[in-house]
């Protein structure tokens, strides 16, 4: 297999979870995106101050953004439901279940 051909990439054969560094980078990216939406909302509220309802809506949208961003950034992805394939066999008795009991 040559490293120059991108079509010959190895097949993922494991069910391992993503690394903690990858998860942290993903959460950090979501936090930065959400927090970067707050500043434009406040600027747009200042631009549209003549339209009071639009400015108010933009301000009300920007107020819970830090709280939601922190919740999203601190939340880890849900765990996968594991369905483990286990070998199960029907238990069979060595002898038949009916025995004659003799009182002595």
């Amino acid at each position: 297999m040559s490293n120059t051909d991108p079509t010959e990439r190895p097949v993922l054969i494991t069910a391992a979870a993503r690394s903690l560094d990858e998860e942290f980078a993903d959460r950090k990216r979501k936090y930065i995106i959400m927090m970067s939406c707050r500043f434009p909302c406040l600027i747009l509220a200042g631009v549209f101050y003549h339209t009071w309802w639009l400015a108010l809506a933009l301000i009300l949208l920007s107020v819970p953004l830090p709280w939601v961003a922190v919740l999203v950034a601190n939340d880890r992805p849900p765990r996968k439901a594991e369905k483990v394939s286990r070998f199960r066999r029907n238990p069979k008795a060595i002898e038949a279940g009916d025995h004659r009991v003799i009182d002595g």
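Residues 18-74 form one domain. The mean pLDDT is 79.
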